[in-house]
Amino acid sequence: MSGGDMAKPLLGHRSTEGDPSVVPAAGRTIGVLGSGDFARSLAIRLVCSGFKVVVGSRNPKRKACLFPSAAEVTFQAEAVKKTDVIFVAVFREHYTTLCDLADVLAGKILVDVSNNTEINHHRESNAEYLASLFPACTVVKGFNVVSAWTLQSGARDGNKQVLICSNSQEAKRTVAEIAQVMGFTPVDMGCMSSACEIENIPLRLLPAWKIPIFLALGLFLCFFTYNLVRQVIHPYIREQKNKFYKIPVEVVNTTLPCVAYVMLSLVYLPGVLAACSQLYYGTKYRRFPDWLDQWLQHRKQIGLLSFFCAALHAVYSLCLPMRRSHRYQLIETAVKQAMEKKMNIWVEEEVWRMEIYISVGIIALGLLSLLAITSLPSIANSLNWREFSFIQSTLGFIALVISTLHTLTYGWSRAFDENQYKFYLPPTYTLTLLVPCTVILAKIAFSLPCIQHRLLRIRRGWEKGRYVKFVLPSATGEYSSGETSSNV
Ligand code: NAP
């Protein structure tokens, strides 16, 4: 397909008024071959959207009761004769059984809605295969990314996009109009060679989540091993104490906040690196390296995983007092204190530390929940750009600062206590502080007027060493032009 074709809007602003040759999308008759789940949902949606529907089945008598009464259910050949646009809601392996209809199908638009069971299952896409079986028809690939359930519930819920491709611009436009009347958003994916890519989309498992999930798992594994060595292995080797019971809850609960906190800082670190790159090169038009580009694109998923770990940490922490080990330790401490006749066990500093630690932790979790909720497409779409950037950028940064306070109040003076260095390993919280503190310091540095001003100018298009044309009013009120270096 030529670049020109791609540049054209899929839905042209055509006026159909007074042109008898143009059939308006709603009201026209649409054919559906097959009477399965997809065909049924499609027929219901088409009828609700104002189309006349004719369903072609091998056994219309048996299947008619499954369709809305407004849809006509008849034999395949009969159905095909009554319409120019036919949705083929049949599996690829049964396409050859439709070959008897080749003559009646000639010159019509066939919409291939099929999916495969494996990525790149066949050498050619299902749509290309259908086109090879029916060379006298125009095949359009589309609607396969929409499930039967979404079709029935309408485009209110779930993904509204319908990806469409075909070698015929006209056929593509017709199917796009139908999709739009049904409440979907048609997306032009170009010519038929894109069909394979479109067919693979419903089969991909969380493509945008792979890197963030591996990152979270990697961090979890590192911190878990570190905490295991400090909390379980060290007392076992040095004091022959069996603390293995700590693994399922305590070690996991000290690992989760580390992952949540570092992941949150990793949401803001690529922005800092991007700003450094822009300041260094003095332009925003230089491409970021691929790894940074990828990182910037995965910030939402990294943030959501950070929220997930923080929420788990909150639940684990609430459940800590439920454990038997906790009750035994509490009784043991009480008995010890009674035997030592210690009456006043109140430590003012510890009380304050804990109160502040819990309070800032709750606030941080609240802010993270807000960030997570507003990153959902349905909520994000209801916000304007300023609201979205205020929540995700400003409130997100505040959440990072509050999480840092949470971590610092947890650690308190432990970093200065030599007993806390197990096998010379510093307390875990000191390690988690590294990246977030770097991000916070960098953000503070960027807010200094001299740096902020330069960064703002770069983001508005200013470039280091580029000469720009300027226009100055002369003393007489006339304008004179000249050239100057913009970075002077
Ligand atoms: P289904 O419930 O098994 O229906 C398939 C229909 O194909 C049958 O009801 C049958 O209708 C018809 N058919 C025609 N020739 C056939 C033959 N030789 N042998 C068996 N059946 C024959 O499948 P479905 O879920 O509706 O899926 C249909 C197509 O839509 C598939 O290509 C699928 O990949 C695609 N799709 C489905 C969904 C979904 O959510 N279900 C989503 C996206 C895409 P008659 O007996 O009336 O002829």
Main sheet, how many strands, which sense, barrel?
Answer: 8 strands, mixed
Number of strands: 10
Q: Hetero groups bound?
A: NADP nicotinamide-adenine-dinucleotide phosphate
User: Could you tell me the strand content as a percent range?
Assistant: 5-15%
Order of helices and strands: HEHEHEHEHEHEHEHEHHHHHHHHHHHHEE
**Helix segment count?**
20
Low-confidence runs of at least 5 consecutive residues: 1-9, 11-23, 470-488
Q: What order do the strands of the largest sheet run in, or round the barrel if closed?
A: 3-2-1-4-5-6-7-8
Radius of gyration: 32 Å
Question: Can you walk through the features of this model?
Answer:
With 488 residues, the protein is an alpha/beta fold. Helices cover 53% and strands 10% of the residues. The chain has 20 helices and ten strands. An eight-stranded mixed sheet has the order 3-2-1-4-5-6-7-8, sandwiched between helices. Helix 10 runs parallel beside helix 13, helix 11 packs antiparallel against helix 13 and helix 15 packs antiparallel against helix 17. It is found in: Endosome membrane. Keywords: Copper, Endosome, FAD, Flavoprotein, Ion transport, Iron, Iron transport, Membrane, Metal-binding, Oxidoreductase, Transmembrane, Transmembrane helix, Transport. It comes from Pavo cristatus (Indian peafowl).
Briefly say what this structure is.
With 488 residues, the chain is of the alpha/beta class.
Present the secondary structure layout.
Layout (H helix, E strand, L loop, with lengths): L2 H5 L21 E5 L3 H12 L3 E6 L2 H4 L8 E4 H6 L3 E4 L13 H4 L3 E4 L13 H8 L4 E4 L6 H6 L7 E6 L2 H13 L3 E4 L6 H6 L9 H30 L7 H35 L8 H8 L1 H21 L4 H16 L8 H27 L2 H4 L4 H27 L16 H5 L1 H13 L2 H11 L7 E7 L5 E7 L3
Parallel strand pairs: 1-2, 1-4, 2-3, 4-5, 5-6, 7-8
Antiparallel strand pairs: 6-7, 9-10
Bound molecules: NADP nicotinamide-adenine-dinucleotide phosphate.
